[in-house]
Amino acid sequence: MSACDHPGLLPVEAALERLLALAEATPITQSERVALAAAQGRVLAEPLIASLDLPPWPNSAMDGYALRQADWRGEPLLVSQRIFAGQAPAPLEPGTCARIFTGAPLPDGADSVEMQENAEVLADGRVRFSEPIKPGQHVRPQGQETRKGETVLVAGTRLRAIELGLSAALGAAELTVVRRPRVAVLSTGDELIEPGQPLGPGQIYNSNRTLLCSWLQQLGCAVLDAGILPDDLHKTRTKLGELADVDLILSTGGVSVGEADFLGHALREDGELALWKLAIKPGKPLTFGHFRGVPVIGLPGNPASTLVTFALLARPYLLRRLGVVEVTPLHFPVPAGFAWRKPGNRREYLRARFERGRAVLYPNQSSGVLRSAAWAEGLVEVREGTTLAEGDSVNFFPLSELLT
Ligand code: AMP
Ligand code: MG
């Protein structure tokens, strides 16, 4: 089903395309050197180029004996040296073998390792290898993982445990990363109060603030918690004006075209505004604009809508501004553990988890229910105009992937 079937509703991929184009127009290019321990979650600003071969020298993959394959004739060999990891061996005396341990350098002259389980130590100390030796067996050749000069991680790579471990293996103590984006989180709504205070009539606790601040920190952002903004045009304008030095203002609530659309009013007056009605559920209203030059994304206020629109739109936008190339969240087809009989005009992202190899849905998919996402392992995508029978294939977006 195409967007033309529902005029006025912007398909998710079209919205994403626009957001990514806007992100590319305002990249965050400043970088800084940070120690590996401080690089978690950050984005590499320069490629990581191997300054050495990995491994730097051929070494043993086993505890056993190093030998020259051509010396093997089934006859016992004399053990001419013992080589532990961390030692620099002497060249192998021809016609002998060397006792060797995992990770120890192979001595010059040796080309193979036999594991100790296949070695028989004779009373006179010589060792017999009963199995024929294949050249190169149980040897990790120099540079098998990486050659000096190779690009190991490209600029724009997000640094997590594995990338940091790999950098350490290459001897890098510091990395050049993109500076942290400064993101202001603004919660709008007269009904909101912070946890820890007694709940008055008509009030609810502000959950989006904590959800987004925590998530943004995971993404390596410098988060400015701009608190709760009442539904008031003057206060909205004043607050937005105070946030002049951030890279992004991320607000929730007050984006529907209702009377309490103060964010929209403020942007219209003092900047620019695009108000999108997205073909997405939960979600739909999303604001993108600028307030005196500062980009603003207004997410819908219902917590599950906040989660889905942040995951699928704001997160990729932010990552792209940092130069991350691959911003589309990982997803893969899985069998549906449910039927979908009524085709919708919006793309649904349903909170789901696996049971017996099929994605099953949380019973209450209301956009106000954040508990659905706490229960879920991922989001199942049901496209516009689709019906499904149990067992049909649906796209699954793991939350573990989206949240980092
Ligand atoms: P709005 O977009 O402002 O009309 O809000 C839509 C729904 O989301 C309303 O039920 C709000 O009470 C709720 N909501 C808005 N902001 C938050 C928030 N920060 N935390 C929890 N719920 C919110
Ligand atoms: Mg509101």
UniProtKB/TrEMBL annotation:
Function: Catalyzes the insertion of molybdate into adenylated molybdopterin with the concomitant release of AMP.
UniProt xrefs under PANTHER family: GEPHYRIN, MOLYBDOPTERIN BIOSYNTHESIS PROTEIN
A GO cellular component entry from the record: cytosol
Enzyme class: transferase
Gene Ontology molecular functions: metal ion binding; molybdopterin molybdotransferase activity
Gene3D superfamilies: MoaB/Mog-like domain, MoeA, C-terminal, domain IV, Molybdopterin biosynthesis moea protein, domain 2, Molybdopterin biosynthesis moea protein, domain 3
Residues annotated as domain MoaB/Mog: 184-320
SMART domains assigned to the protein according to its UniProt record, in alphabetical order: MoCF_biosynth (SM00852)
Name of protein: Molybdopterin molybdenumtransferase
Domain of life: Bacteria
Protein family: Belongs to the MoeA family.
Essential cofactor(s): Mg(2+)
PROSITE patterns documented for this protein: MOCF_BIOSYNTHESIS_2
Coiled-coil spans in chain: none
One GO process term, biological-process aspect: Mo-molybdopterin cofactor biosynthetic process
CDD domains named among the record's database cross-references: MoeA (cd00887)
InterPro entries reported for this sequence: MoaB/Mog-like_dom_sf (IPR036425), MoaB/Mog_dom (IPR001453), MoCF_biosynth_CS (IPR008284), MoeA-like (IPR038987), MoeA_C_domain_IV (IPR005111), MoeA_C_domain_IV_sf (IPR036688), MoeA_linker/N (IPR005110), MoeA_linker/N_sf (IPR036135)
EC code(s) of this entry: 2.10.1.1
